[in-house]
């Protein structure tokens, strides 16, 4: 049985959007396909009539500086994100996250946009982009627009983007300035390639011994990618010491909504280990920012 009836290869964003809109049956965009094809083969996704291949669109395969921002096209393979000197310089947390996604063969095919479009609250690339306060570029029938990265998500596995009509073009991240750095780490089971029990990303701007600005993301800390905004406020403008860290951790624990997972970990266990992970990530980013 065919998994789809038509396969289109547009060469522009406008053509891709038109291909989705004009399909004679259910249509979806595809790039790496490492998740979508498995879901279709295993019957875990409703039937699709038309697949629209985005990998021939130059804008979506671009990774380059644009003004004071780094642009990463949605169909850039995860392994390229992990190795490119521009992401190493301006998005270290994303580099570390991408290096932990699946294995080398999958990373050579899977795309950053696919990692995000799956809308999982603990997806490694998603948590890193949340801490980096990225913006997403989205294209639809009304044109191309930019939106806050966290606006892409409405629930576990539920994207705010209508995949049958819209596509994620790419992501914008601010260039790293003096005194700024980021870090991503995760805790996972020790059986080779594994899904995270918990992950954390921090971006910060250091001014001497003071936290000038900070973004903290933890996954899964809620139904959507979790930004610990209240803990950020507690640390912002403060010296980084044990007392201020412990206060921020207490606030984070009060804001986060950890959940039980039969295959990964209980909510109580996640609450128990998040402090050590958060401290490790924060200390690493702090050291890099010097």
What does this structure look like?
The chain has helices at residues 13-22, 36-41, 78-83, 85-90, 92-98, 104-109, 112-117, 124-131, 229-235, 242-255, 267-289, and strands at residues 6-8, 27-30, 50-53, 63-66, 69-73, 135-140, 143-148, 153-155, 158-159, 167-174, 180-188, 196-207, 210-219, 226-227. The protein is an alpha+beta fold and 290 residues long. It folds into three domains: 6-53, Uridine Diphospho-n-acetylenolpyruvylglucosamine Reductase, domain 2, CATH 3.30.43; 59-174, Uridine Diphospho-n-acetylenolpyruvylglucosamine Reductase, domain 3; 181-289, 2-Layer Sandwich (Enolase-like, domain 1). A five-stranded antiparallel sheet has the order 4-5-10-6-7. A four-stranded antiparallel sheet has the order 11-12-13-14. A hairpin with a 2-residue loop joins β4 and β5.
Short description:
The protein has helices spanning 13-22, 36-41, 78-83, 85-90, 92-98, 104-109, 112-117, 124-131, 229-235, 242-255, 267-289; strands at residues 6-8, 27-30, 50-53, 63-66, 69-73, 135-140, 143-148, 153-155, 158-159, 167-174, 180-188, 196-207, 210-219, 226-227. It has 290 residues and is an alpha+beta fold.
Distance between the termini: 58 Å
Number of domains: 3
**What is the radius of gyration?**
19 Å
Largest sheet: 5 strands, antiparallel
Low-confidence stretches: none
Helix content: 25-40%
User: Which fold name fills CATH's third level, the topology of the largest domain?
Assistant: Uridine Diphospho-n-acetylenolpyruvylglucosamine Reductase, domain 3
Classification by helices and strands: alpha+beta
- Number of distinct helices: 11
Strand order of the largest sheet: 4-5-10-6-7
Helix and strand element order: EHEHEEEHHHHHHEEEEEEEEEHHH
């Amino acid at each position: 049985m065919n998994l789809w009836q038509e396969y289109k290869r547009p060469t522009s964003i406008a053509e891709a959007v038109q291909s989705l809109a004009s399909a004679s049956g259910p249509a979806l965009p595809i790039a790496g396909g490492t998740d979508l094809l498995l879901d279709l083969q295993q019957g875990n996704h409703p039937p699709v009539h038309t697949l629209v291949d985005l990998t021939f669109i130059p804008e979506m395969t671009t990774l380059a500086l644009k003004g004071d921002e780094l642009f990463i096209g949605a169909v850039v393979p995860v392994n390229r994100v992990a190795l490119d000197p521009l992401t190493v310089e301006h998005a270290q947390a994303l580099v570390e996250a991408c290096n932990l996604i699946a294995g080398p063969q999958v990373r050579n095919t899977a795309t950053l946009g696919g990692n995000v479009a799956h809308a999982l609250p603990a997806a490694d690339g998603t948590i890193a982009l949340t801490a980096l306060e990225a913006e997403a570029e989205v294209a639809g029938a009304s044109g191309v627009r930019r939106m806050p990265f966290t606006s892409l998500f409405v629930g576990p596995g539920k994207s705010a983007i209508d995949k049958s009509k819209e596509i994620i073009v790419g992501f914008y991240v601010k260039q790293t300035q003096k005194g700024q750095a980021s870090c991503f780490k995760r805790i996972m089971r020790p059986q080779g390639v594994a899904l995270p029990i918990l992950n954390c990303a921090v971006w910060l701007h250091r001014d001497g011994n003071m936290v000038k600005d900070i973004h903290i993301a933890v996954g899964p800390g809620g139904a959507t990618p979790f930004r610990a905004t209240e803990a950020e406020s507690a640390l912002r403008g403060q010296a980084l010491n044990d007392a201020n860290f412990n206060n921020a951790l207490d606030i984070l624990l009060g804001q986060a909504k950890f959940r039980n997972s039969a295959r990964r970990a209980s909510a109580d266990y996640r609450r128990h280990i998040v402090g050590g992970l958060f401290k490790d990530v924060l200390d690493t980013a702090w050291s890099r920012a010097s």
